[in-house]
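Subject: two folds for Thursday's group meeting

Dear M.,

Sorry for the delay on this. The cluster queue was jammed most of the week, so I only got both jobs back this morning. I'm pasting them in the order they finished. Each block is the input sequence followed by the predicted structure tokens. Could you check whether the formatting survives your parser before we put anything on slides? The first protein is the one we discussed after the seminar.
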Amino acid sequence: MEMTGERRIPASREKVWEALNDPEALRAAIPGCEAVERSGPDEFQARVSMKLGPMAARFSSKIKLENLNPPASYTLAGEGNGGALGFAKGGADVQLEALGPSETLLKYQVKAQVGGKMAQLGARLIDSTAKTMADQFFERFAGALTPAAAPAEAVVETTPAAALAAAAPAAAPLAAAPTVAPVAAAAPIAARPVDQVAMRPLSLLTQIEPLGLPLLFWAGLVIWLVILALLFL
């Protein structure tokens, strides 16, 4: 089986290289991967559950990194044992080309051979399954390295009055109160003659009007109430 392809990764070449050598990043990206552990400086062990046509199995794989040229390229050499399903071994050449400060072109070329029951399923099924797993891997791998989108800025709603206030010059304080010219000293008020009639007590009483009615009305009303009380009580 042979397979080639390339993918654009929205990250710098150094960042992509680090992710390709990070066991946790690989575990999250490989479909059906249960664990990836580093067993040496350039060696990994992985456990992967996969389904190939009507068959399903769990593979224990050993992967070794060769021809290291960081951060430009390396070769993956590995073999996996799927128990009754058979075995697989092969390698992949991986190249990283920097397209910009935050974009990398990843190229790969895979060569592998299978044995046991897997070999009886036919090359077409094996190639189709391998391509599907490769697509899923690179989709997850690129997604993990894609920068998160910046949150949208909050839109602040303002009333027309608030908008007019915001449009006014910021430095302008509240309008100063108009200055009042000093008032000249008032002339002394001439003493008015006292109205002797107005000062009489009876005249003052006639000027009182509770609830808008003359005081004489209220006095007469009280007298009539007293008379009625004496007649009927």
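Second protein, same layout:
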Amino acid sequence: MKFTPTLNKVRISLVLLAMLATVSSCGKKSEDSTAAADASVSAGGFAYVTSQDAGVSVIDLATMEVVKQFDVKAEGPRGLGVTDDGKKLIVATRENESISVIDTTTGEVLQQIHVGKNPEFVRINGNFAYISSEPSSVGGPPPKPGTEEDDDDDDEEKIPAKIAVVDLTKGEKVREITGGPETEGIEFSADGKNLVITNEADNTVTVHNIADGSLLKTIHTHEHGDRPRGIKVSPDGSTYLATLEYGNKFMVLDKDFNFVRNVDTGQTPYGITYDHTGKHIFVATNKEKSLQVFDAQTYEKIKDIPTGNRCWHFSFTPDDKQILLACGKSDAVFVIDAEKLEVTKQIEVKNMPWGVVTYPKAMGSLDTKIATQE
């Protein structure tokens, strides 16, 4: 049987169309596979860890491995925070008295904004970042109690600190709130109207109106313990906790910032947080070399989790199943099972890891889980 030229052309066209369809299908499968692979890499989210002598390490929470390094383009990165959309990381850099605004996708430093001497904690609320500073600090570890350096009568060194308020949309510092000398930790009040800060050098916790910066209340800690550092509000807003590094305890305040009680901890407590349910309290005790767990109702200690050297700050993972604890002098981030309360892994992070936050946001000593994520 003979085919006409026209019929042959039709059949050739059909064959070509089938081949093109196959190639297109293979391409689509390849794209789908690539997309699936990318999704699996970031399925657990990411943790960002500052190292004081380096930059930022990025940990893939699905694999618990360091997958990227961000150069912050400055020396002495410490406090950090991530924006609510996860697109920008804000890092306090001590030596240039600034914050670095980093694109979390590319690792590019988009901007450096001057905020003041010795910036330390970073907290983000909407489009604004709040950065504590220590203008009277001379650097290094805090002096030992009773030494000449720790003399409470040395007023010349007690320069009031400033909380820099940075508008992240404008990309500039828009105002300052005056804190106490060597302002350390920053927390937002439960209603979002006030800042609660720890002032390390004059042993106070102060409450300030966010809108106008006015001082609303001062809580003196000396009779309970010196050097207040970590600060945290409970998920239901009913209590506030402040660690007293030289008291070896944390202080409990009610919703109106009235003293309730003290709770004994191991040596030199620093970072502190509730879990997202508010049922447990976790405290990083530096010289005790442990993460301590307490019942948030009775304040009875549940467990000491042995850790490493100079462990200050920590965060839950977004799924609340694990805890990441930055241990500076161990050059490691310890991974802790949040249910078994046991260390399961150490991730090497060199150059004095200081702080850790995650995206999606999770409860930790430097951040708070966003309720809408649950």
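Two things I noticed about the second structure. Residues 27 and 42 are 23 Å apart (CA to CA). The helical segments are 5-41.

Cheers,
T.
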